[in-house]
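2024-03-11 09:14:02 DEBUG pipeline.ingest accepted 1 chain
2024-03-11 09:14:02 DEBUG pipeline.ingest length=49
2024-03-11 09:14:03 DEBUG pipeline.predict start
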Amino acid sequence: MQIIIKPPDAVEMAVDGFWRQTSIQKRLDIFEHFFMINSFERYIQPENK
């Protein structure tokens, strides 16, 4: 039995790169949104010291 492994072609590499970039961008967007919400909540209700 032979297993043939072919290297990815240009389309496969482009799609993989697109999805990777999209997931990283989504994580950054979520982090940015979380940071903005936290900052806004602290502005409205400052922490007691």
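2024-03-11 09:14:41 DEBUG pipeline.report The mean pLDDT is 69.
2024-03-11 09:14:41 DEBUG pipeline.predict end
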